[in-house]
Amino acid sequence: MRIRWYALATAALIAAGFAALLLFIPPVQTPQNDTVAINDLRHHLAQDFERVRAEGSAALPGAADGAEGNAKGVAGGSVAGGTADTLAYSVFDSDGRLLASTSESPAHDLNEAIAHGNTIVDVAVGSRVVGKLAIDNNIAASLNSHRTRLQLAFTVMLTLLALVLTLLLVRVHRSVLKPFRTLESFAANIAAGKLDIPLS
134 exposed, middle or buried (CB, 10 Å; 0-12, 13-18, 19+)? Predict the structure, then answer.
């Protein structure tokens, strides 16, 4: 009867573990970008695109190239205080070559940026597309964080399951196997003619 309760407890533990995985680990979500800030950044890049092409990252809005550079790159300072400080982004020319970046590990070309899941926005001067703005969504970091939480949850669940199974095996050994071996030894003594040895 007790073995049945241990089996039920093990099944309940497994069910609770899977329920905890579903309830307490949120689904992977793609980071949401501030579209207003991205549009402001795109507008400022369109105004100073030739400067970005010539000077590279130093010409990007919010770059630490002095007050003059910030005044040229950002009208009113809204991008420097917002997007440039909070978003990692790269600027590519119309051929997909990297011109400038605020990202620590930028994509080397537009195809690599697309492969990394970056948000790609056209930079246009008038009706002519002069380049691309790639916003780094940091999907890899989000996936790594999610993977770490899943590994931790599985480790805890497997540890608890191993503990319950160990307790179940100890209980089975004490309540079934040990008495059976005692009976086996007693039967062997009777067969050998030792009738005075008690069943202990």
Answer: buried
Count of other CB atoms within 10 angstroms of residue 33: 17
Q: What does the alpha-carbon distance between residue 129 and residue 51 come to, in Å, rounded to a whole number?
A: 16
Residue 101: DSSP 8-state? E
Q: Which of 100, 98, 95 is nearest to 130 (CA)?
A: 95
Is the Cα dihedral 124, 70, 136, 113 positive or negative? Answer: positive
Residues in CB range of 52: below 8 A, 6 or more apart: 45, 59, 60, 91, 99, 100
Helix or strand holding residue 167 (H, E): helix 139-172
- Which neighbouring-strand residues pair with 122? 132
pLDDT of residue 76: 36
Residue with tokens 């507008």: 43
* Averages of pLDDT over each 10 residues, the chain, 200 residues: 68 74 65 77 87 83 45 37 62 89 80 84 89 81 75 80 81 78 82 77
- pLDDT for 185 equals 83
Give the whole-angstrom CA distance, residue 188 versus residue 41.
90
What residue type is assigned to position 191 of the chain? A
Q: What is the enclosing helix (H) or strand (E) of 69?
A: helix 66-73
